[in-house]
Amino acid sequence: GGPYSTSLDAGQIEQALTNLVVNAIQATPDGGEVAVRVTREHARSPSDRAGSEGEWIAVRVSDHGEGIAPEHLPHVFEPFFTTKDIGSGTGLGLSVAYGIASDHGGWIDVVSKPGKGSTFALFLAVDP
Questions:
Q1: Which is nearest to 100 in space by CA: 20, 37, 13, 32?
Q2: What is the rounded CA–CA span in Å between residue 32 and residue 14?
C-alpha cells in the first residue's frame, strides 16, 4: 500500500500512472519532456466525489505536446474517445485511469493549452 495508505491497490495505481505517462508520450510525437511530480496538498474533491476537503497526494503528469482542444476537454475521460489516428490508440487509457482513481476515492483533473501541452493530475486520499 505504500507509506500513505493501506487500502490502495498498487498494481491498479501503477496502471493508472502508466496510462497517464503513455498518453503524455503520445502527445509529444516529435519528442519532448514528460514530467512527473508528486506533491501532498490540501484540496477539495469534485462535487461528484462528495466534495470533501482534505489532504491529498497529487501526481501530476505534464507534457509540452499538442495539447487538447477546448471542445475535446470534457470528453477525454470517456471510453473510446480519442483524437489519435486510427490504430494509434483505443481511447481507453484515460478512461481506465479515471476509473481506477474513482475506485480509490480520488479523481483526475486536466489542464491543457492547445499547442503548449497538458497536465493530468491524479488525486488520491492521504488517509482514505
A1: 13
A2: 23
pLDDT tens column, 2-20: 444 447 789 999 999 999 9
Residues 88-97 have a mean pLDDT of 83
Show contacts of 67-72: CB within 8 Å, 24+ apart.
67/27, 67/112, 67/113, 67/114, 67/115, 67/116, 67/117, 67/118, 68/110, 68/112, 68/114, 68/118, 69/114, 70/114
Assign 74 to helix, strand or coil: helix
- Positive or negative torsion for Cα 5, 8, 11, 13: negative
Residue 27 · residue 63 · CB < 8 Å: yes
What would the DSSP string read from start to end of 96-127?
HHHHHHHHTT-EEEEEEETTTEEEEEEEEES-
- Residues contacting residue 32 through CB under 8 Å, at least 6 positions apart: 63, 64, 65
* 53-63 and 117-125 beta bridge pairing: antiparallel
